[in-house]
Structure formats: structure tokens, C-alpha cells
Automatic annotation (TrEMBL), chain B:
Membrane topology annotation: Multi-pass membrane protein
Cytochrome c assembly protein domain ranges (all copies): 30-185
GO molecular function terms listed in the Swiss-Prot or TrEMBL record: heme binding; heme transmembrane transporter activity
Pfam families listed in its UniProt record: Cytochrom_C_asm (PF01578)
Keywords: Cell inner membrane, Cell membrane, Cytochrome c-type biogenesis, Membrane, Transmembrane, Transmembrane helix, Transport
GO CC terms of this entry: plasma membrane
Record protein name field: Heme exporter protein C
Species this chain originates from: Microbulbifer pacificus
Protein's cellular compartments: Cell inner membrane; Membrane
Example of a GO biological process term: cytochrome complex assembly
Transmembrane spans: 21-45, 57-84, 96-116, 128-150, 162-182, 202-223
Length: 235, 252
């Protein structure tokens, strides 16, 4: 999808992966609301859950892993819409697409930053929320690891949807509609990891599958997203 | 070997004219097979030892589920052909395949629910096969929604083709879900490489129904593609000429 241009003939002015990554990261850190809002959403809705389904500790502990995972999915989805939007609107996405280097690297840099500012804080925060929802002992570490691995896959897969819908005026619900079905395997194995740990089984296999999904997504999703960006730019 | 036929396939006009010859044959063959299969399966096939008569819903359920999955591949492959060789026609077929596939997925979900009530005692369970079929339904809806969201037709074509391709990752998971996970849904009865675990007296009507569904699918897909071609190409000379022609009396 993305033409395999050779990197050797690239002019010296073409920013490398690291430069792009640093720029993106600096930008993301300076727009603090973009980082804080998904987390705030994540925490607020999880705080509403016991009010909605009842505060019984046994029921909460049974649902904790699933609730946290579904909320992580929604928080990722919410923050995904703006992944390429700003760059599309001010034209820098077009500039990136015109460069001689494959679009794969800018996309990967953006997704990496997205994961660092949404996925990682979410995973770090998860033990606290697990405690609030009375998650069973032994579930904390698997929850943290599965979220750290899984949210990276979610960011990568979601980037394809964000790239497909970037040219549309109001993509919010459409993005959710096209991306949610693709999130399902990650959700299944993510909650499976925690469940296996809570039931006293080894959770290695599930974690390994999450890692395999991440590897496949890292190889393929930026390619698909790059193709999608080119399609969106034609629109 | 001449590649002319292959290039001609990319022309909506050529397809429209050729398919008007195939269409009656496809439709007739499909409807005959479906009628024979229905009467044979619903009226004459023996009762199942465990499920009684309720198993007969399989004669609708199994072919619909088959084609719901095959239809996704047809849609994705057409999308890929369109993206790679920039064929106009294959994008049209891709768009035509999406609502038909969604309808078949819906039929297989509904018949599955109706079958589930007498056999499992419930309309719906969150079992691997059923849930993944529901996801397939959402995948179809996503492709349909995305293809309609673009103001420029070509962008909508390419974007939904890409999404259809990305979604193919889920199809083998759906297909294999009954073998990989131990769930309520029974494992596959029909197998390509081994003997099927089904009695011939039930198997032949089922095969008839599957063949009938395939022909019916091809017929409906062709019809829908023709409609989309006319909608897209209404500005061209040949469509105008076609529309100005008096309708032949034999067809009315």
C-alpha cells in the first residue's frame, strides 16, 4: 500500500524516526488536556460503575478486570480521533506523505507517542482502580502487563481507523463502528490473562498471544494506516 | 494467451451487457435448487435422533452462515483487486456484496437463535461462534457505513476496500472458533478432507441447499451490481441510450 521508497536517496532534511518521535512527544506533552482527558474519563466512568451495578464486593471483584479493560478500550478510542486530525487540517500530513521516506515511520512515531501518553498511564493507573473495584489478589500484575501490551495493539489498530476517517468532517461514531470489531481479539485475551491469573492458572499463554497480536499489529497496522492516509488525502 | 477478456472485465458496460445473458440462467438454476432442497430437506429428510424436527432449520442456517463468511472474502478480494489493479468494476462488486453479506449474516444469526431455543434452551449465549458471527455482522456494517461516508466516490471505494482487507484478519478466527474453543456450538459437521459426520440422507439435501444458496448469492450480487453500475454511470452515453430504449414487451 505504501510505496517502498528507498531511504538512501532521501535528502538530508528528511526528519528521521527519532526526530519525528521527539517532536510528536513534545507536542503531546505540551497539550496536557489531551493526555489528562482520556484518563479522567477512564477514572470517572469506572467510579460510576459501582453506583450503577451495585457496591457488593464479590460482584465487583468478579467484574473488575472486564470493566477496566472495556473502559481502557473506550478511552483509547476517544483519544484516537485526534491522532491525525491536527496534522491533516494544517497540511503537515500532506507534507509527510510527500517525503521520500515511507509513511510507515511517521505513523509508527505518532502511534508510539499515542500509546505512551494514553496507554501507559492507563496501565500504570490500573492497579489503583483494581483496588477500588476489589480486584482479587494476584490479578494486579497480570492486569498491568496485559493492559501495557494490549493498549499498544489498540493504538496501532485504531490508527488505521483514524487514518481512514481523517478526511471526514464528523468521524466520531463511524470511527467507533469500524474499529470496535477489530478490537475484540485484544479484549478477549486481555481479560483472559487476568481471569486465568485469578483462577490460579498460568497466564503466560494469554500474555504471549497478546504479544503476538502486538507484533503483527506493529508490522501491518502502520502500513495499512499509511495506505489509508494516502486515500484520505485524495479525498 | 490473450488477456483481452481480463481487461474487458474491468469495464462496467461490458459486465452489464454480458450479465443480462447470464442473469436468467443463474436465477432459474438457483431457485430450482433452492426449491428442491427446501422440499427435500424440510419434507422428506429423516428426523434427527436427538434433535427431532428442529434440526431442519439447518437447511437454511448452514448455507446462510457459509455464505456470510464466503461473502466477506468475496467482498475483500474484490476490494483488493480494485486497490491493486484499479478496476472500477471490482469496487462496484465490493459495494454490492456488503449489504448482501450483512443480510446473510443476520439470517444465520436469527435462524441460529431460533434453533438454539429448542436445542440449548436459550435464544442467545455468548459463545465463541455466535459472538464472532455478531462481530462479522458489525464488520459488514462498518464497511457499509464507511463506503457511504465519503463525498468522493473513489475515496469511499478505496477506504472501504482497505477496511474490508483489514477485517479479513477476523474471518479465520470465526471459521475456526468452534474447533479452537470448547463452546456450546457444535463443531463443524461438513469437512472437506475427511468424511462428514452426517448421514447421507440428510447430507444430500443440505448440499443441494448450499449449492442453491451459492447460485442465489451470485444472482443477487449480479443484480445489485447492475443496479449500482446504472447509478454510477448514469452520465455516460451507453446508459442514456439504454434508458431511452423502449422496454421490450417480453420482459414486462
Amino acid at each position: 500500500m505504501c510505496e517502498p521508497e528507498s531511504n538512501s536517496t532521501a535528502p538530508a532534511s528528511t526528519p528521521g524516526f527519532y526526530t519525528l518521535f521527539r517532536t510528536e512527544f513534545t507536542l503531546a506533552v505540551r497539550r496536557r488536556s489531551d493526555i489528562v482527558n482520556p484518563l479522567l474519563f477512564f477514572v470517572t466512568v469506572l467510579a460510576l460503575m459501582p453506583l450503577g451495578i451495585g457496591p457488593e464486593p464479590e460482584m465487583l471483584s468478579r467484574m473488575a478486570a472486564g470493566l477496566i479493560w472495556v473502559m481502557a478500550l473506550l478511552a483509547t478510542l476517544l483519544s484516537q480521533e485526534s491522532l491525525f486530525r491536527g496534522d491533516y487540517e494544517d497540511g503537515s500530513l500532506e507534507q509527510l506523505a510527500l517525503q521520500s521516506q515511507p509513511l510507515y515511520y511517521p505513523v509508527l512515531a505518532k502511534v508510539l507517542v499515542h500509546w505512551l501518553v494514553t496507554g501507559v498511564p492507563l496501565a500504570v493507573l490500573s492497579p489503583l482502580l483494581g483496588m477500588m473495584l476489589n480486584l482479587g489478589q494476584g490479578g494486579y500484575w497480570p492486569l498491568l502487563m496485559s493492559l501495557a501490551l494490549g493498549t499498544a495493539s489498540l493504538s496501532l489498530i485504531g490508527a488505521v481507523g483514524a487514518a481512514l476517517t481523517v478526511a471526514l468532517r464528523r468521524p466520531g461514531l463511524l470511527l467507533a463502528l469500524i474499529i470496535m470489531p477489530l478490537y475484540v481479539p485484544v479484549l478477549i485475551f486481555g481479560t483472559g490473562t487476568v481471569q486465568a491469573a485469578l483462577d490460579g492458572y498460568s497466564y503466560g499463554p494469554q500474555l504471549a498471544i497478546l504479544g503476538a497480536i502486538l507484533a503483527a499489529a506493529a508490522a501491518l497496522a502502520p502500513l495499512a494506516a499509511a495506505g489509508a492516509i494516502r486515500i484520505s488525502l485524495e479525498n | 494467451m490473450s488477456w483481452q477478456w481480463f481487461h474487458r472485465m474491468g469495464s462496467p458496460r461490458w459486465f452489464y451487457q454480458k450479465s443480462s445473458v447470464w442473469l436468467p440462467w443463474l436465477g432459474a438454476a438457483g431457485l430450482i435448487l433452492l426449491t428442491v432442497g427446501c422440499i427435500w430437506g424440510l419434507g422428506f429428510a429423516p428426523q434427527d435422533a436427538k434433535q427431532g424436527n428442529s434440526y431442519r432449520i439447518m437447511y437454511i442456517h448452514v448455507p446462510a452462515a457459509f455464505l456470510a463468511l464466503a461473502g466477506y472474502y468475496i467482498m475483500a478480494i474484490c476490494g483488493a483487486i480494485g486497490l491493486i489493479w484499479k478496476m472500477k468494476l471490482s469496487f462496484v462488486v465490493m459495494r454490492a456484496a456488503a449489504p448482501i453479506g450483512a443480510a446473510l449474516t443476520f439470517i444465520s444469526l436469527v435462524t441460529g437463535a431460533v434453533w438454539g431455543k429448542p436445542t440449548w434452551g436459550t435464544y442467545w449465549v455468548w459463545d465463541a461462534r455466535i459472538t464472532s458471527m455478531l462481530i462479522l455482522f458489525f464488520l459488514y456494517l462498518g464497511v457499509m457505513a464507511l463506503s457511504g461516508a465519503f463525498s468522493r466516490e473513489q475515496s469511499g471505494d478505496k477506504a472501504s476496500a482497505l477496511l474490508a482487507l483489514v477485517g479479513t484478519v477476523n474471518i479465520p478466527i470465526i471459521y475456526k472458533s468452534v474447533d479452537w474453543w470448547f463452546t456450546l456450538h457444535q463443531p463443524a459437521t461438513l469437512k472437506l478432507t475427511q468424511a462428514s459426520t452426517i448421514d447421507p440422507s440428510m447430507f444430500y439435501p443440505l448440499i443441494t441447499m448450499i449449492a442453491g444458496f451459492y447460485l442465489f448469492y451470485a444472482w443477487v450480487l449480479t443484480l445489485h451490481t447492475r443496479t449500482l453500475i446504472l447509478q454510477r454511470e448514469w452520465r455516460t452515453q451507453w446508459v442514456r441510450e439504454l434508458l431511452e430504449q423502449p422496454v421490450p414487451a417480453a420482459k414486462s
